[in-house]
Design brief:
17% strand; globular; 20 helices; 17 strands; 7-stranded mixed beta sheet; alpha/beta
Length: 532
């Protein structure tokens, strides 16, 4: 065993400052999560309850296995925008009748479950996770379709809601819709394109056009029930495969459907004991530096995440700014690439490239732990080949076929974000700690670079450079870049799969590893040309 040691000074000022800063970030996260759980607000939640209806998270709780975890994804989507935090949709991974599944639940307290641009992005990301990881999909539907006020942003790209749902079915991944209320216009196509459909009697209403629209279009007089009631669809149209007596009954039927899928995971699954780490996970609140410009020891994080704190480090004396090695999390073997001191030199890039190839040869998922400032710049490093070495690493990440899971515990800047499996490189899952920052470069660097460019332009034109105006522009730009780099901003725009409490890291990573093992876990030897 190669058990990690910890040198964390719990009584020191650095630990105390780090913990205080992280607790501040967590307070902001909890406020955003409370806002998401509040749905459309007290008035609309009360109206929903008065109709004897369950809220989306209550429906999910009755669907998943008793006492099993539910990993909610992108819970703060749309936060800080004109739309409700959560985007009127709950998505996540839960276990239904023993089967890990993607679950989506419309929140009808938010504009009747209407789809806005953030809802669409959140929905499509859930479909993507379902497809890539081969997870059956449950959609708990109660939706008025597209938010018509934003139709220009919804109508054309929104067709992907239905295209991707049918692609899941074509891939042999079961899709199950449970309909609890009005599901009109685009909302009607969700059950219409699912493999299984359950509708709640006297509650579910599924139609392309309601009575007013039908009256305007055809002159025909009709009722909701005649056009799209559960009984009509169960007895006449055949859209409903099952008719439930009430909401709990619909959820019970959904569990029965799952139990009859004869579903099997294709990955090898856990192959090691899921031994708890030797160090207290509570310590993770004090590990990451309050000032991300200051490095911190990433092994302190690994010691509190991997099974038994057992980590077999690969090339420990070479490319020391990038820690690579073999470990397991909740029994799932994996390779780990973790930034230790931020910047990547040629040695780190070459080390990563080899390690990624080895993980593919061994058919092992890769866990990327990001705290990266980017690849090193400067004459010495350019002449030493940093571009081609960085390109080798990016090549390896791009073409690796084993599942990638990314956890961002600090900054993620420039091409370092790419080399460490950032969003553009499609990791199966990407989670952030609340202190995370993501940008092309730090705000002061970016603003300073723009200032130098402006100064050089003034010199070329032979005009006087306005120092006061430049100071003002630099500060305004730095402030904007800083705000846009913060985890709440990027997560609200679905550039990750959610902000998590550091203490939940081991659980979240274990659930993500379990999910990727629902599909085949297989590496490749087919990489692009590695420049030498």
């Amino acid at each position: 065993m190669a058990v990690l040691v910890s040198r964390l000074d719990h009584g020191g000022d650095v630990y105390a400052a780090n913990r205080e800063a992280m607790e501040g970030h967590l307070a902001g996260l909890e406020a955003a999560l409370a806002e998401a759980r509040g749905g459309g607000g007290e008035q609309y939640v009360a109206r929903h309850r008065k109709r004897d209806k369950l809220l989306p998270r209550e429906r999910i709780e009755l669907l998943v296995d008793r006492d099993s975890p539910f990993l909610e994804l992108s819970p703060t989507a749309a936060g800080g925008t004109e739309f409700a935090t959560g985007a009127g949709l709950v998505t996540g991974i839960g276990v239904v009748s023993g089967i890990e599944s993607i679950i989506l639940a419309s929140d009808p307290t938010v504009r009747g479950g209407a789809v806005n641009p953030h809802t669409l992005a959140k929905m499509l990301r859930a479909y993507e996770i379902s497809l890539h990881n081969r997870l059956p999909l449950f959609f708990l539907v109660e939706s008025g379709g597209a938010d018509l006020k934003r139709q220009v942003e919804i109508f054309l790209p929104g067709g992907a809601m239905f295209r991707e749902l049918t692609r899941l079915s074509a891939a042999g991944i079961p899709t199950i819709s449970l309909v609890f209320g009005n599901s009109t216009a685009g909302g009607a196509y969700l059950p219409g394109m699912s493999d299984y459909v359950v509708m709640v009697k006297e509650r579910a209403k599924v139609f392309l056009g309601g009575p007013p629209l039908v009256k305007m279009a055809t002159g025909e007089e009709s009722t909701d029930e005649e056009l799209g009631g559960a009984e009509m669809h169960a007895r006449i149209s055949g859209l409903a495969d099952y008719m439930a007596t009430d909401e709990p009954d619909a959820l019970r039927i959904g569990r029965v459907i799952a139990s009859r899928l004869n579903w099997r995971k294709l990955g090898p699954g856990p192959n090691r004991p899921a031994t708890e780490p030797m160090f207290d996970i509570e310590d993770l609140l004090g590990v990451a530096s309050a000032d991300l410009k200051l490095p911190f020891d990433v092994r302190e994080i690994l010691a509190r995440i991997v099974d038994g704190s057992d980590f077999d480090e690969f090339k420990p004396l070479y490319g020391a700014n990038l820690v690579t090695g073999w470990a397991s999390v909740h029994g799932f073997s994996c390779g780990v690439l973790a930034n230790d001191r931020g910047v990547l030199f040629s040695q780190e890039a070459q080390k990563a490239t080899q390690f990624i190839q080895l993980a593919n040869r061994a058919d092992l998922p890769l866990l990327f732990i990001q705290n990266v400032t980017g690849y090193m710049v400067g004459k010495e490093y350019e002449q030493g080949g940093i571009i081609k070495h960085g390109a080798q690493m990016v090549n390896a990440v791009s073409n690796s076929t084993v599942p990638h899971i990314t956890l961002q515990v600090g900054g993620s800047y420039g091409a370092g974000n790419y080399g460490m499996a950032g969003r553009a490189f499609k990791p199966r899952f990407l989670f952030l700690w609340p202190n995370a920052k993501t940008a092309v470069m730090g705000p002061d660097q970016l603003a300073g670079t723009m200032s130098i460019i402006a100064r050089q332009a003034a010199e070329r034109q032979g005009i006087e450079f306005d120092e006061a105006a430049d100071d003002s522009r630099r500060q305004a730009l730095a402030d904007r870049i800083e705000a846009e780099s913060l985890a709440p901003f990027t997560s609200a725009r679905l550039l990750d799969d959610g902000i998590i409490d550091p203490r939940d890291s081991r659980t979240v990573l274990g659930m993500a590893l379990s999910a990727v093992h629902s599909n085949v876990v297989e590496g490749t030897s087919n990489f692009g040309v590695f420049r030498t």
